[in-house]
Amino acid sequence: MLVTVLGASGRTGRLLTRQLVYAGHEVRALTRHHDAAGLSGVGTTVIRGDASNEDDLRRVLKGAQAVVSVLGAQYSREQVRTYSGTARAITAVLGADGPARLVVTSSAILSAWRDPTMTWTERLVLTRAVERVGATLYDDMRRMEDIVATSGLDWTVMRPLGLTDMDASTRWAVAEDHIPGRSTSRRDLAAAIVDQLSRTDFVRKTAAVATTNESVGIAATIWREAVRPRLRRSPAPPARAPRGGAGSPR
Ligand SMILES: NC(=O)c1ccc[n+]([C@@H]2O[C@H](COP(=O)([O-])OP(=O)(O)OC[C@H]3O[C@@H](n4cnc5c(N)ncnc54)[C@H](OP(=O)(O)O)[C@@H]3O)[C@@H](O)[C@H]2O)c1
């Protein structure tokens, strides 16, 4: 089947594109980058564009039989609009002229369910992460879920646990609404999305996906995925004038 991948140049997007081709699909990949290094190849056509732009979406969706999205935004104190903005554009274009099958990616944090095997410290770390580091991002994921759920399309919302890169070969499981565990490897999320294209039992449902045989602690995931990238993006403090040099206060 011809599958459009949105967010194709991201970390999950690249794995997903490759796995779709291995599974025998033809891929049309959308990216905002000029240099889509490593993305194009046998079975994949790369199209440059923005997933919040309806004209770009029309080009990348033309003739597709399914659309899968692993679009993502960075954690930020500012209001995040990536998820809701793209969801509005995608559902508008699909509703008017496109395939009905849509798989989007959200997060397990949006579920009210918490794994009872979590320790008190893990719960506290998770609550702080939701309320402080990720509040604006998760608010926008919730808006995206609402837009998709009321779209009338054949949607599935994927909710991975803490996303990580794992080298070891892993196993994964999917369940409606929530699933026990600590993490989901990006490769497993990609595999679970590919799997959704050949099944209908999660249509108009939320599918929680977890890696079942390996895990990374909640605090380590939050550090790697949320805190460390923010520290890297922080502007360097202004250089101090040398003591006693020109312009220094007397
Ligand atoms: N990190 C976690 O712990 C976690 C947990 C649960 C769920 N998730 C979700 O899982 C999904 C995959 O995560 P990931 O870490 O693999 O993603 P990622 O590496 O951050 O990639 C996200 C991709 O989305 C693209 N994108 C964003 N807005 C776009 C737009 N308007 N048009 C076109 N492309 C756009 C980005 O492109 P640019 O390179 O051009 O910016 C980037 O390539 C995301 O939805 C994420 O929110 C993450």
Mean pLDDT level: 89
Which ligands appear in the coordinates?
Answer: NADP nicotinamide-adenine-dinucleotide phosphate
Major β-sheet annotation: 8 strands, mixed
Q: CATH homologous superfamily? A: NAD(P)-binding Rossmann-like Domain
* Approximate helicity band: 25-40%
Distance between the termini: 73 Å
How many distinct beta strands? Answer: 10
Q: Can you tell me the residue ranges where pLDDT is under 50 for at least 5 consecutive residues?
A: 241-250
Radius of gyration: 20 Å
- Spatial strand arrangement across the major sheet: 3-2-1-4-5-6-10-8
Structural class: alpha/beta
Strand content: 15-25%
* CATH A-level architecture: 3-Layer(aba) Sandwich
User: Given the structure, what is the number of helices?
Assistant: 7
CATH fold topology? Rossmann fold
The CATH class turns out to be: Alpha Beta
Tell me, what's the shape?
globular
Strand and helix order: EHEEHEHEHHEEEEHEH
Number of domains: 1
Detailed description of the structure:
By secondary structure, the protein is of the alpha/beta class. The chain has a single domain (2-230), classed as Rossmann fold. Helices cover 37% and strands 20% of the residues. The strands form two sheets. Strands 3-2-1-4-5-6-10-8 form an eight-stranded mixed beta sheet, sandwiched between helices. The chain has a two-stranded parallel sheet with strand order 7-9. Helix 1 (11-22) crosses helix 6 (186-196). The termini are far apart. Mean pLDDT is 89; it is low at 241-250. Bound molecules: NADP nicotinamide-adenine-dinucleotide phosphate (NAP). NADP nicotinamide-adenine-dinucleotide phosphate is lined by residues 7, 9-13, 30, 32-33, 50-52, 70-72, 82, 86, 105, 107, 160, 162-163, 186, 221, 225.
